[in-house]
Amino acid sequence: MYNLLIIIPMLVLLFVFYTFLSPVDSRENNSSIQIAELQNIKDAPVELGQVDWNRNFDEAVIKAKDQNKPLLVLFQEVPGCSTSSGYGKDVLSHPQIVEAIETLFVPVAIYNNHSGEDERVLNSFGEPSWNNPVVRIITPNKKELVSRLSGDYTKAGLVKSMITALQNGNKPVPLYLKLLSQELNVNSGRSENAVFAMHCFWVGEGKLANVHGVLSTNPGFMEGHEVVELEFNPEIISYGELVKKARSQNVARHVFTENSEQGFIAKEIVGESSVSPKSTFRSDSRPKYYLSGTSYKYVPMTNTQIARVNAAIGGFQSPDIFLSPRQLTLYKYIESHKDLNWPNLVSNSDFISSWNKTISLLNTQISKR
Question: Residue 1 above 80 pLDDT?
Fold first, then answer.
């Protein structure tokens, strides 16, 4: 009996430890792994950017089969010319492109100017040696999911290929990647601007940001009116459709037009007395009003994400659907470390700069642990 009195409490203690303490440790380890993914500290050739590439093609094929993912194969010159190094610095170092490549695909890099295993794989695909960057997205059985990407060394080109490959492979395309594609295409010169006056630009900004094709919003003043100046993609929504949508949502009390063509369209919809040419715009001192009152203001986002997140918060909806998994991980870390001096990024239009600044602070904090 005496022995039982000793053993039973010990068993209870062991049960409590493994039941309650072990899962916490596991969660902490998982959290640490997720944060480590954000750090982007990679000792790799500049031509490979910030992507964590596999270097053995056969092993990558096995991994792709196990994970049920397509392979993204980069044929790259290492060391390479300015085109190759530029592709690494510009395209393969964009944080959201890096995340998409590492999480939605199994990435493998083949050096097209090396002998041995690299040369064997290069020849099996019929790729030329000493060539500029080429990307192929294939199934583990080497079936092409999208046309070979060559000669297009832009971020927009690679993102478009990734989206098409995912669609052709019956894989879901994350919303953050779709939004990034829209914004990158606009940066290639395919956007237009519009200005609408309404009773409250904070309300107007929230409503207009939800319109499909609207890429960014900016509240301010024009000729005594509270207005929202926005950028939109005319390939997704025409100017006329945008004016009609704004009017239906009561955020087009007056329309300021960029040119005579916009003026003609706007007058047909809202009437001549409610249309005038665009004049001097003065930004509001509190842009993204709803977003600026939350910890999301510290999360690096693209302009389109900022607009959508602000609108979601203003509409009492969760904004998380617009963020990537790594952005959400960063947000959760920020939420649990509010005492740190996180920079307010609402007005910073340079996503990469914002990301690097925040990750640098994250790295500093982790190194102090």
Answer: no
| The residue to which tokens 């610095």 are assigned | 89
CA distance 288 to 313: 10
Residue 4 has pLDDT above 80, yes or no: no
CA-wise closest residue to 98 among 170, 168, 37 = 37
How many Å separate Cα 112 from the centre of its chain?
A: 30
Phi, then psi, of 133 in degrees rounded to 5: -55, 135
Q: Which two tokens stand for residue 42?
A: 């990679």
Asked which of 125, 144, 173 is the last residue of a domain, the reply is: 173
Distant-in-sequence, close-in-space partners of 85: CB < 8 Å, separation ≥ 6: 46, 47, 79
Structure tokens at 181: 């594609």
Q: What is the mean pLDDT of residues 351-364?
A: 86
The domain in which residue 130 lies consists of 46-173
pTM: 0.84
User: How crowded is residue 341: how many other Cβ atoms within 10 Å of its Cβ?
Assistant: 6
Residue 240's region, left for phi above 0, alpha for psi from -120 to 50, else beta, is alpha
| Nearest-angstrom CA–CA distance, 58 and 241 | 51
User: Does residue 217 form part of some domain?
Assistant: yes
Is residue 40 in a domain? no
